[in-house]
Amino acid sequence: MVKSSRRRGRKDRLKDTTQDENSLPVWPGVIGGRLKPLSADEVMLVQNTAFSLLETLGLNQAIPSMIDRVLSAGGSITDEGRLLFPPDLVRWAIDGAQRGFTLCGQQPERDLKIEGSRVHMSTGGAAPGVFDLDTHGYRDSTLQDLYDAARIVDQMDNIHHFSRPVVARDIEDNALMDINTAYACLAGTSKHVSISITEPQNVARIAELCYCIAGGEAAFRARPFLTVMVCHVVPPMRFAEEACEVLELAIKAGFPVQLISAGQAGATSPATIAGSLVQAVAETLAGLVFARLVDPEVKAIFAPKPLVADLRTGSMSGGGGEQAILMAGAAQMGRHWNLPTSSIAGITDAKRLDAQYGAEKSLAVTMAAHAGSNIVTQAAGMMSSLLGVSHAAYVSDNDLLGNILRTIRGIEATPENIAADVIADVCRGEGHYLGDMHTFRRMKSDYFYPEIGDRRAPRDWQEQGGQRIGDVARERAREILKSHFPRHIPDQLDRALRDSFDIRLTRTQIGRSE
Q1: Helix (H) or strand (E) run with residue 171 in it
Q2: What is the model's pLDDT at position 22?
């Protein structure tokens, strides 16, 4: 029997509409992990095959320090120079990996808790091009574009993490590009930042920059706000020697690291989805073993990111169902071992904000997120099969990601949420829920409202200009770029950084006086 609550008049129900004022419909770290595209038997087959590949085939091109560490830990090396990883060593790396750590922002309120199946949305990529806000055409990306992307993302509630999305192609020297990439990202947003470093000798300067911003090396090590992404392998089953040196130095400098394998199905990994997944998992686990041998307490993110090719042409095809299910499977393997996990999703093949863009991005991001990936990279802004970024898309994707996060949150069927007493009360009273206090309390906490998504009636939309979503997003992006110049790096510190490093963004470009 349903027990009715005390009836209330409309005035009583309207007295307090702020009870859940601070409740949000979505938030960083919504719990995912309910989607499991692999059966339990398939998970074990992937695991056992990956372990077998590491034990019997191994990887070649290991750097000397890796060989020494692995051999000392019970590994071996073949006459052909392939480094072999025994199952016990791989299990040691998995079982002792850091879990439940924080990816810090430069401001504590931007911290991200990486644990369990908590989901966070991120940018990402290394696109060489930008879809220009004004010309609506592609051009080479610049350092300014990188800083502008960070500024826009800094204002987007549902993009939680900033992974370097474009290459500063106006800077040719690798060392100069690396330091300016780090500065542009860190100056543009106080959210946690991830970058790659092109050469081992550049790690020390990036570390020095971070130490300066943090207020010292100890302060950065206590709250590291920048992750180094490392593609430590050149698939199939080969280490990337310089990248492994970067990985080792980055760990020693106190950086969290993201361990990435990015083979391409049918080219550098098997054409089958399962085969591509197994290879990527094995390659990523090899990186985890090395990372933990360098520092057992390293904050390492398991990031198998195999990609899909269109086998008719050989070109990358990131927008299809194959990529979406592959990323969901990779995320599930991370959840199987309860490892901090990152997946690549949202790398639509579309060239602009259109129906293809929305359909492909929604499919891939939704599946990776529902599978429980802790950091879904390329979820915002990226398009054209990783060749281009749209600043306007960050704005429209903020709405898309908010809606996806709401689906991850789920229905939450609890006695309170089922609201049987409210149903009884309304049915015995006014016969509708529009004026009930329960509706007012839950309209903010339970419902996500898009910022630029259009829900007007067709006549109203037409009378007010009939703008397409891309046009609205471009206008909002322009507004942000005109007005939002983050100040979390104090002025005096910014000047000090310029005295120590060759910073190519001028103070005028970051909205400060010279």
Answers
A1: none
A2: 52
Q: How far is CA 63 from the centre of its chain?
A: 29
Q: Tokens in use for 374?
A: 């802790």
Residue 399, pLDDT above cutoff 70: yes
**CATH class of the structural domain 95-409:** alpha beta
Token pair in block for residue 24: 């949000």
Instruction: Express each pLDDT in 278-317 by its tens digit.
Output: 999 999 999 999 999 999 999 999 999 999 988 888 878 8
Average pLDDT, the chain: 94
Residues 6 or more apart whose CB falls under 8 angstroms from that of 10 comprise 430, 435
* CA atoms within a 13 Å half-sphere pointing along the CA-CB vector of 16: 4
- Tell me what pLDDT residue 151 has: 98
**Range list for CATH 3.20.20.480 in the chain:** 95-409
Burial letters 128-145, b for 16+ CB under 10 A, else e: bbbbebeeeebeebbbbb
Tokens 């906490």, located at residue: 445
10 has a pLDDT exceeding 80: no
Q: Which residues of 196-221 are buried (b: 16+ CB within 10 A; e: fewer)?
A: bbbebebbebbbbbbbbbbeeeeebe
pLDDT of residue 233: 98
Q: Identify the burial level of 417 via C-beta atoms within 10 angstroms of its C-beta, where 0-12 means exposed, 13-18 middle and 19 or more buried.
A: exposed
Summarize the confidence of residues 160-183 as an average pLDDT: 98
